[in-house]
Design a protein that fits this description.
10-stranded mixed beta sheet; two-stranded antiparallel sheet; binds nicotinamide-adenine-dinucleotide; binds manganese (II) ion
Length: about 350
């Protein structure tokens, strides 16, 4: 029997609620499939751990995670600790050392879900945003000096490297090649940011000819937001920097119905390190502990994780269950206009996986 080792890092807030739900769904899929098993180990890292130990995860946390086939992550962030400490101490502390440079964020308007855009149906919004995930605006370079004085300076220095830009652009071109539309939009802000962003443009011009089957265009990030709203059908795959794609993908999630649906994979494509899968939403302070978080983003992320470890049939079965659940229009969670709890949605999706009528 094929066996995969999954490290679950639920983290904080609703991260713990949706990962719990996602693990139940994964176990149901493995039981149904019969051809593979999952060895799941959960690590209670996050803000509670920080308040006890002064760090978000143990010093040897990366060594602990390294042998796993994949990491299933919830969210980092809690009202008791500043966001930059929790984010840098856990999520970014895993993404950067594990060289998970390709952050892949699919957005689809699932059948049955009404997005906020008028006259846009499920065939019209089917995007993948590829986010550079290890450098750029979130490289961590910068500093603060003269704190509290009028001459205080705060700097975040954006770092782009030729190798970092080229590998993410090639990853996006390869991904576009596998899709039916075979189209890639490269997003920058190279009118205003005239060094690193112009380097993005130059590198793209140099390499795109290696992918003659992929149609490409370029867009400034501000114009891209309006295109996403006004002409969603014209978009297929998008590649952008760490910050730009972070913002664009939250917009994409909202346009596809809710932040609660959207999944992401932080990939180390060379597989030298485990890749990490997570819903794109955060800890949702306003609803945490209430049992009403939408777990679909965590389920969809679990499907991406199964695909990545090499179980495409189970991955597709999970997507199919999610789509049938959405299409039924029944028992939707609150963010999709219903009353259902995390428990209700989880039970409904598991019943669909098990082939029961709901
Ligand atoms: P958020 O995603 O937590 O919440 C934004 C809004 O969307 C809230 O109104 C929330 O209720 C709603 N929402 C999000 N996910 C939902 C779900 N599954 N079901 C129903 N509604 C959902 O973003 P935020 O408020 O900007 O951040 C809160 C905390 O999470 C902060 O500490 C932030 O740093 C952290 N965060 C972490 C990650 C991560 O670890 N990957 C990502 C984003 C935010
Ligand atoms: Mn974000």
């Amino acid at each position: 029997m094929r066996q995969y080792r999954i490290a679950a890092v639920p983290g904080d807030g609703i991260g713990t609620e949706v990962i719990q739900a996602g693990l139940e769904v994964l176990r149901a899929l493995a039981a149904r499939d019969g051809g593979f098993s999952l060895v799941i180990e959960s690590f209670p890292w996050g803000t509670d751990y920080y308040l006890e130990h002064g760090r978000m995860m143990p010093e040897d946390g990366l060594k602990t995670l390294k042998p796993f086939d994949a990491i299933y992550f919830g969210s980092a962030g809690d009202p008791r600790v500043a966001d930059h400490i929790s984010l840098w101490g856990l999520r970014l502390a895993i993404c950067q050392p594990f060289d998970q440079y390709a952050n892949v964020r699919p957005s689809r308007l699932l059948p049955g879900i009404n997005g906020p855009l008028r006259d846009v149906g499920s065939d019209d919004l089917d995007w993948v945003i590829v986010r550079e995930n290890t450098e750029g605006e979130y490289a961590g370079a910068g500093g603060r000096v003269h704190r509290g004085h009028p001459e205080e300076v705060g700097m975040d220095v954006t770092v782009f490297t030729r190798s970092g830009v080229e590998r993410i652009q090639r990853f996006a071109l390869e991904l576009a090649r596998t899709r039916s539309a075979k189209h890639l939009t490269m997003v920058t802000k190279s009118n205003a940011q005239r060094h690193g962003m112009v380097m993005w443009d130059d590198i793209f011009e140099e390499i795109k000819g290696d992918y003659p089957d992929v149609e490409t265009d370029k867009m400034l990030v501000d114009a891209m937001t309006t295109r996403m709203v006004l002409d969603p059908r014209s978009i297929d795959v998008v590649v952008a920097t760490n910050l730009h794609a972070d913002v664009l993908s939250d917009l994409a999630a909202a346009l596809s119905g809710s932040m609660g649906i959207a999944p992401t994979g932080n990939l180390n494509p060379e597989r030298r390190y485990p890749s990490m899968f997570e819903p794109i939403h955060g800890s949702a302070f306003d609803i945490m502990g209430k049992g009403i978080a939408n777990p679909i983003g965590a389920f969809w992320s679990a499907s991406m994780m199964l695909e990545h470890v090499g179980e495409p049939v189970a991955a597709a079965a999970l997507m199919d269950a999610i789509e049938r659940f959405a299409a039924s229009g029944k028992g939707m969670p609150r963010d999709l206009g219903g009353e259902a709890t995390t428990r209700d949605v989880t039970d409904a999706v598991i019943a669909l996986i098990e082939g029961k009528n709901v």
